[in-house]
Sequence to fold (285 residues):
Amino acid sequence: AQRIHPSLDDKMLASWNGLMIAALARAGQAFENEDITQLAAHAADALLERMRDPDGRLLRRLRGTEAGIPGFLEDYAFVVWGLIDLYEATFHTRYLHTAVDLADRMLILFGDPSDGGLFFTASDAEQLIVRSKEAQDGALPSGNSAAALSLLRLSKMTGNMEYERRAMAITEAFASVVDRYPTGHSVMLWALHTAQQPGTEIVLCGATPDHVRDMARAVRSRWLPDSVLLYRSDGEDDALDALAPYTATHRPINDEATAYVCRGFACAFPVASVEKMLELLDRPQ
Fold:
């Protein structure tokens, strides 16, 4: 204790916080623990308030009150990932809206329209000898793998198939290297698996999120890796209409909590009980 202590690396990184937010949001759902979910929300709110520039672009690191360095691909990809999971945990539409906004910025700043895939640095960053692309997962997923997975999830949530097209362009750009070394690209393979599955879009409708709590709990109790979960209030939900227009006609039945189970945006008849919803979810794809 009397020795000189080593210096403490006390900076905070957008990318690492994005993954932490995703983990906490998933854990909050799995354990039905609102305290864990609130930790994720608190981290996300702080990040979005303190780690963006006046134009809304992500900044990479925060130390004390000083944020700086324009975000790299992994910062955008991991924060989008976290916000998607946080939306499904809280049903606060602002998180989904911000995920879409950051995903759009990510595609503009890092996209390679000629060869697919996403560059590690932004188009307006300092010009290097080589503008690299990374796909191999290490201690953390690669930015391209996380971006592909998040874009596919956003396509299922919003109905915007451009996200799916861009995600597939990422998987195609790295197909040969993934084929040679699949164990080094597990998240890219996860994204590819997600793209090949029909998936399920589950839209819960009710006056407030509390009214659909039992349905949400039942969905979260199942292992549905290729599903997405949305919530729509029973009145005019302009925010969700703008993000996911296919949900515009979804309404509660007789003022009861109601679930719409859809596959490929083709929805079964709405149901107003947990048991009937689970029957629909358990049907073969």
